[in-house]
Amino acid sequence: MHRMAVGSRPLVPSRLAPGGVAHGSRRAPSSRLGAFVALTKPRIIELLLITTVPTMVLAQGGWPSTALVIITLIGGSLAAGGANAINMVIDRDIDALMERTRNRPLVTGRVTPREAMVFALSLEVLALVVLWVGANLLSGLLAISATAFYVGIYSLWLKRTSRQNIVIGGAAGAVPVLVGWAAVTGSLAWTPVVLFAAVFFWTPPHFWALAVRYADDYRAADVPMLPAVVPLGHAVRQMVSHTVALVLSTVIVVPVARWEGVAAGPQLGLLYLVAALVLGGAFLAATVTLGRRPSDRLSMQVFGFSITYVTLLFGALTLDVLI
Question: What is the pLDDT of residue 9?
Fold first, then answer.
């Protein structure tokens, strides 16, 4: 049986995260169409869009135009899908070495690198056009800038060279809140910047929880993901510090929104604030527990809860504005 060591304690791998392996499936796509869909990493796109619509609601102070919401989701999905496909082209060598990614389309040969790049770049062009025409130029440029940052800073540079790879590179995943705000208002403000910071601080503990489970994969591929290159205690301390910053960011957004006088400011109050504190406390407790009782099973539970956390947090934000 495959085993993984974190610090000095051997861990036995669990099977799958709830609902399957997050951030991709172990099973190879059975068709060409499925292979191209897999290039976009649909589960990651779903996670990114969870933050987009609530931010649009906050910017509007109510429900925005449904047509605008749909356009923004389509444009954001196209941009994120293109970025993920380019990432797969860049990472196809290390994907072949990792258990979690060895059945991706470029590894199995179902799609060629050239086909994947043409597909990805087409998605990016289409994303810019959709957002520019359907919303405004700023939202389109923000979406494309997220792709450029993700590919240039994270995939091509930091992922293989720095243990801070996901800390810095993960900023690309926080851009959808800026896209959502810009799509509604045509500008940016401090409120979406604070929400950006919240998603920015959420990303490392979310991803490091997964990396604890797959540390051997990252070592085999020589990728310095933090839990694969430092003792678990050090990784957990980093997770805790980022989670504390996350909770502070989610709380600070309330006075910032009111100070700026955004339409939803006075409405964003107790429901959201209680949710932010309760969910943040639970997330923090989960990361501390992982440090005290390290196991693959618990790491995947923390990973799964991190997804639940961001879903419920932004859901509470939406409800607080709408009700």
Answer: 34
Coil, strand or helix: which one is 4?
strand
For 49, the 3-state DSSP assignment is helix
Closest by CA to 249, choosing from 190, 303, 167, 205, is 190
DSSP helix/strand/coil, 63: coil
Please give the Cα distance from 268 to 179 (Å, whole number). 20
* Tally of structural domains, the chain: 1
213 located within any domain: yes
Element (H, E) at 10: strand 9-11
**What is Dmax (Cα atoms) for the chain?**
58
DSSP letter for each residue of 185-219: HSS--HHHHHHHHHHHHHHHHHHHHHHHHTHHHHH
Question: pLDDT above 70 covers what percent of the chain?
Answer: 90
Let me know how long the chain is: 323
CATH number of the domain where residue 39 is located: 1.10.600
Q: Is residue 7 one of the residues assigned to a domain? A: no
Q: How far apart are CA 109 and CA 209, in angstroms?
A: 30
In the predicted model, what is the mean pLDDT of residues 173-192?
Answer: 96
pLDDT tens digits, one per residue of 109-163: 999 999 999 999 999 999 999 999 999 999 999 999 999 999 999 999 999 999 9
Q: 3-class DSSP state for residue 9?
A: strand
Q: Is the pTM higher than 0.85? A: yes
4, part of any domain:
no
Residues 6+ apart with CB under 8 A from 276: 247, 250, 251, 313, 316
Please tell me the distance from the alpha carbon of residue 55 to that of residue 34, in angstroms, as a whole number.
31
Please give the pLDDT value at position 26: 59
Give the three-class secondary structure for 11: strand
Mean pLDDT of the chain: 90
Which tokens sit at 285?
A: 């407790």
CB atoms within 10 A of CB 174: 22
**Tokens, residue 149:** 């940052």
**Domain carrying residue 151:** 29-322
